[in-house]
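Technical annex B. To support the medicinal chemistry partners, we prepared a structural model of the target in complex with N-(iminomethyl)-L-glutamic acid, based solely on the information shown next.
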Amino acid sequence: MPVLKNISFLATCRDEGAQGDLHSIRDAALAWDDSQITWVGREVDLSGEYPGADQLDAGGRLVIPGLVDCHTHLAFAGWRTEEFVQRALGKSYLEIAQSGGGIMRTVCLTREADPQTLLKHCRGVLDQMVELGVTAVECKSGYGLDLETELKILSIYRDLNGSHPVRIASTYLGAHVVPAEFKGNRSDYLDLVCSEVIPAVSQADLASFCDVFVEESAFSLDEARQVFAAGRKHGLRPKVHADQLSSGGGAELAAEVDAVSADHLECASDAGIEKMAEAGTVAVALPLASLYLNQVQLQVRKLINGGVRVAVATDFNPGSSPSFHLPLGMTLLCVGSQMTPAEALKAATIYAAKAMEMDGITGSIEEGKLADFAIIDAPDPDHWLYHFRPNACTGTFVGGRQVWGQGA
Ligand code: NIG
Ligand code: FE
């Protein structure tokens, strides 16, 4: 039974209390048996029960629950570097999409890509995420938009769930944009999504959630309702890309359909926030997307004060967020969103796990949960996120097994 000792600051990140309540323990120790945490507390209280245990030393560092990236578009082919340059020259994200770039460009490349190439890309990214302390990731489809490619992408996530240490939750994002071949024929595309792809995804048990990009340039509220109704019928719970570029009632819709999370929300209305609080919808801040699109960062105080749990994720994708650096996203929240480091840590752990319905097994360090945690070379969360470095993580454990760092 392994024991990790010499932890200067252990942030348990239990759900109860406020966003900033980390329920931390100083001079702590942590024990686990196979994959589950069996004991957590002050090292002086560690009983003689563990004399023969494998003793690991955290070196006086910070220990946090494994980070959870609850919003990514992991599987795609090709980068869109030229769009990054075009935006620097003054073109907007929407202008670029309208002139042949954007999501549809990635759809074309992803349709052509063979599964092995996509799998290799995903594996490479997940390996690097693990080095940052990430132990669970939500992965969306949405760069296929036809039956065959959507199933190809979701099958890759299923393969990875069995073969990569990171825990994966999959989301079907058929309603990302109306693909070019259905231009002028939106209702036929929605029929395909609702009557063919959703049943096929559900039948093969390839996703837990379905997502809709609710936006003027993508799908309307009524179209989203249609997709979510079909999803529900087939056991896929709703998640929403809401109010990213314009205020379109996405937050209200998320509450109405009892979505697991509403993500982006930069333009959400006050009424929408109130409804999300009543419904218990988790808000997901995506600060790297706001950064890359040069948008004002989500103002989280309104959400937190209104009683909404705020999670954070990378939104990793080749267009609006070509970075998977979750700790950078956390630091950005502190700088641009008036979030404290403690709040940002709960956002990237237990609340993010809630946003992908994994909070029963991971996202906090407590007895009975899986031993998913990371060792961070900092004395406490405040100093970690303040003194930003390429990587401060020195060890990552998934289900009690070390998957990164010295000793892995
Ligand atoms: O979350 N909002 C829609 N989807 C992505 C962007 C995808 C892309 O540009 O390829 C997002 O920002
Ligand atoms: Fe997204």
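Notes passed to the chemistry partners:
The two ends are 17 Å apart (CA to CA).
The chain has a mean pLDDT of 96.
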